[in-house]
Design brief:
disordered C terminus, de novo design (two linked rop proteins), 161 residues, mainly alpha
Length: 161
């Protein structure tokens, strides 16, 4: 699957398209403009992390990309929450709810992908630690010697002599 066909990529892209007009309506002060620029940058970098995670074959590299994605999306969510709390005229309650819906969808998908990758890495490490035991073909008389002998009533008698 191509990265731009994945639902998580499309969701982040949709959130970015939704965010740009919001960032344009921010107050003209330097701090608000900077905040809007960081918001757009974090969303753009989130798209980059998704692309990199899809393109890499190495699971550890994919894990790094997914951790980067989670970090950036946490920053985006925090920034939107701050904007809504400080200036209610920037994001209405409806817009805030719409943003949270998109964020929840993205975080659910990222969380599932992250858990699956961690599981596969742990499974891979466990398989590497436990070498496969291959039983060589043995002659019947050698196999009988290798198998533990069952105890009989006479074992105690033989041991007492």
């Amino acid at each position: 699957m191509k990265p731009n066909q994945a639902s998580i990529y499309r969701e982040i892209e949709r959130l970015l398209e939704w965010t740009i007009p919001v960032a344009d309506r921010l107050p003209k002060s330097v701090s608000w403009r900077e905040l809007g620029g960081l918001l757009v940058r974090d969303l753009k970098e989130s798209l980059d992390f998704v692309v990199l995670a899809f393109q890499t074959e190495d699971r550890l590299e994919r894990l790094e990309c997914l951790n980067g994605l989670v970090m950036r999306m946490t920053s985006v969510k925090t920034t939107f929450r701050l904007m809504h709390r400080v200036r209610r005229d920037i994001l209405s309650h409806g817009q805030h709810a719409q943003m949270l819906d998109m964020m929840n969808s993205i975080s659910d998908q990222a969380g599932k992908w992250l858990r699956k990758t961690k599981y596969l890495i742990a499974e891979e490490r466990q398989a590497a630690e436990q070498p496969a035991v291959v039983q060589p073909e043995q002659k019947p008389e050698l196999r009988a010697q290798a198998e533990p002998r069952q105890r009989t009533l006479f074992d105690d008698v033989e041991g007492s002599r």
